[in-house]
Write a structure and sequence with these properties.
Layout lengths: L20 H55 L4 H30 L2 H12 L5 E9 L2 E8 L2 H12 L11 E6 L17 E8 L8
Antiparallel strand pairs: 1-2, 2-4, 3-4
Helix pairs in contact: 2-3
Length: 211
C-alpha cells in the first residue's frame, strides 16, 4: 500500500485576482472618459450662461441709454419761438371770439343793409386771418386786421369777394406792415414773428355806420 503526501504549502500557490491589470486599466479609462465628458458639458453650460449674461447686460445698457434720452428730452426747456407762437394763437382766438360776439350783437341792433355785410364777414372767416376792427357807412368799407402771411390775406379777400354784399367791390386802398418790425420795440401780446397788420379801404368815407 502506498500513499501520496502533498508537501507543498497552500500558501505558496499562485493567487488569481478577480480583477487583473487589464480590467483595472479599462476601468480607469472609462472613469477618465466620463470625467472628461462631464467637464466638457460643464464648460459648454458655462459658456452659454456667460453669453446669456452678456446679452442681458447689453439690453440693460440700451434701456438705460433710452431712459437717459427720455429724461433729457423731458428736462429740455420749451422753445421760445414756440411759446411766442402759442401766445399769438391764444391772442388770435380771444380776438376772434370777441369780434364774433361784437358782430352778433351788432347784427341784432343794426340796420338790414349793414347786417348782411356783417354776416358776410362772419362767413368769410379764414384760418390765420382775423379782424381787429371795421367801419361801414354808405359807399364806404374799411377793414383793419392781422394775418400770419400775405397768402392768407389773399385767400381771405377772395373768399370775401364771393359773398353777395361784397361781390364786385374794389378796394381803393390797401396797407400792410409787419406787426413787430426790426427795431420797432415791443409790440402787443398778439404780435409775433411773421404776423403783419393790414388795412383794406373801399369807397370814400362818409357818415360812419358802424365799427
Amino acid at each position: 500500500m502506498s500513499q501520496q503526501i502533498n508537501l507543498v504549502s497552500p500558501l505558496l500557490l499562485k493567487k488569481r485576482y478577480a480583477f487583473g491589470l487589464r480590467e483595472m486599466s479599462l476601468g480607469l479609462g472609462l472613469i477618465l472618459a466620463g470625467t472628461l465628458a462631464w467637464a466638457a458639458y460643464l464648460h459648454y453650460q458655462t459658456g452659454a450662461l456667460e453669453t446669456r449674461a452678456a446679452e442681458l447686460e447689453a439690453r440693460q445698457a440700451d434701456a438705460q441709454l433710452a431712459l437717459d434720452r427720455l429724461s433729457a428730452e423731458a428736462n429740455r426747456p420749451a422753445s421760445a419761438l414756440l411759446t411766442e407762437r402759442i401766445k399769438a394763437t391764444q391772442a388770435q382766438v380771444a380776438q376772434r371770439e370777441a369780434l364774433l360776439e361784437s358782430i352778433s350783437d351788432t347784427i341784432e341792433t343794426t340796420s338790414t343793409g349793414f347786417a348782411s355785410r356783417l354776416r358776410a364777414l362772419a362767413h368769410s372767416h379764414t384760418e390765420g386771418v382775423w379782424l381787429n376792427g371795421f367801419t361801414f357807412s354808405p359807399g364806404y368799407v374799411a377793414l383793419n386786421g392781422s394775418a400770419l402771411n400775405a397768402g392768407l390775406l389773399t385767400r381771405y379777400m377772395d373768399r370775401m369777394g364771393k359773398q353777395a354784399p361784397f361781390a364786385g367791390m374794389q378796394f381803393s386802398g390797401m396797407n400792410a406792415e409787419l406787426a413787430n418790425p426790426e427795431g420797432g420795440g415791443k409790440s402787443n401780446a398778439a404780435d409775433a414773428p411773421g404776423i403783419f397788420n393790414f388795412a383794406l379801404i373801399s369807397g370814400s368815407q362818409g357818415k360812419t355806420g358802424g365799427q
